[in-house]
Task: structure prediction
Amino acid sequence: MSIAERSTGTRAAILDAAEALFADRGFAGTSVRDIVRDSDSSPPSLYHFFGSKENLLVELVADRYESYCDGLETHLEAATTAFEVCKLLIDFVLTNMSQQPNTAKFLFSIMFGPQQDIPKGPLRELLVRWELIVHKRLVDVAPEAPEVRVVFARTMLNGLITPPVLLFLTSGITTFPTNLSTCFALRVADVLTDHHPVCALPSFAVDAERAD
Result:
């Protein structure tokens, strides 16, 4: 094995160990000593690749979340209606929790869990991507829907997804009613065309989108 291959392997091992530990103990409850022990590496190696535990967290989120969002974007390409966008999104989240529980637990704990002691700025910019993906797909399939309704629908989706995610994080539950995504998606899709009032909450995702 070449030096470059060993270096790549060590970096990957550190990321894998950190993901498992952060998922199990949280960021604050995991030490550099824990990570290097479980990755069979050393503190100098961790600092060489990442500089600090905080930078390691940001790079780990970037690596795992990029794969997660790439998969979501591909999954939503099949949608042709707002209902399908919403249903496919919820199905994707629930399936991901079941098939990749460690990665899901890590990412969701960062997205939905306590935010103390983590680098908020860089993570906020990373974690907004899924909202922009959903927003764009809703606009694509329902171009006649007013912007405020698209934003409200996205907000509703976020709120409806949160309870299953919290059940997964707190109780390890990965099995939900088979019609859950259909029920949620029907309600959210209606928001784009019904006559009930809606409001747009302040959103970093919208700000980022406008900046583009």
Remarks:
- The mean pLDDT is 87.
- The chain has two domains: 1-51, 54-211.
